[in-house]
Protein: Ig-like domain-containing protein
Amino acid sequence: MKKLKEKASSIFKTKFGKGKALHFLGHDLSEYPASNSEYIKVNKAKWEEYYQCLRKQNESLGSSLSATPEAVLGFEGHNIKLMCKMCISPQERHKTDAILWEWAPQEAKKFQPIDLTEHVVISPEDKTLHLYNLQMDQTGQYICRLGESLTAPYFLTVLNVSDTELNEVHTPEAPLGPYPAVSDMIEEYGLILDTEWSAWSVCSNCGKIGRKHKLGYCTIFSKEYREFISAASNSTVDEAEFTSRVTSVDLELFTVFKYGIPCKSHILPTAIKNLPQVKSRNNEVMVGYCKVKKMVSC
Structure:
């Protein structure tokens, strides 16, 4: 029996990775903690993390009970990461190796497996998809899959930097502008124009003053759709003109994309892209000064 246990343990360590505390049948010991207080704490934390994930997922469904897709923007040559927002119980964590990423190019009708390369990497820990050195032909739809379970899709648009106007702005604390564009309201359509900012880049110098930057993406959000319908009925905009420019179908898209749609996204309806306020608002790059303490790794 002892040899059988050792053999089973050896097989499962090979399968699930070295260094894990495993039951002789291959289970994580924290999943069946018995009276071990340390394993009980670990087990409780794992399940609480899982339930918290489910709560967030349930809250995001809203009254329509549908998962919220995300429209994201990236620049050619830059990097982006897409998180696999799938809730996996501690009992099923050994299945994470079965999680797959699939995508459909812009004009494609079917999803296909993503080919992993030096520029397309899936994190083994949380299955985040990392896309390095983005190319324009990577524009499309991305989903994370585990068996028949799917996450809400990402709609990625990759832009050529040279073809995109970027306004350079300074931080609000800077003594001189130009400063970031403020939030703007397109009253007649119930749309809000705002800027979504990326994280700061690393400092350009180490041990002395350098520069850092972050990108600001023009993004369009909507008020509650029902509020807009009510306001539109009292609008002074000519109804025929309203219908020819932006339709209710165009606006309903924002009830699905609750996190907004970038102004330059390939999924944004042309009628909305052509609104004067949208056409005149560029993406921005914020530049600031920084200083990082000199370290051995600098």
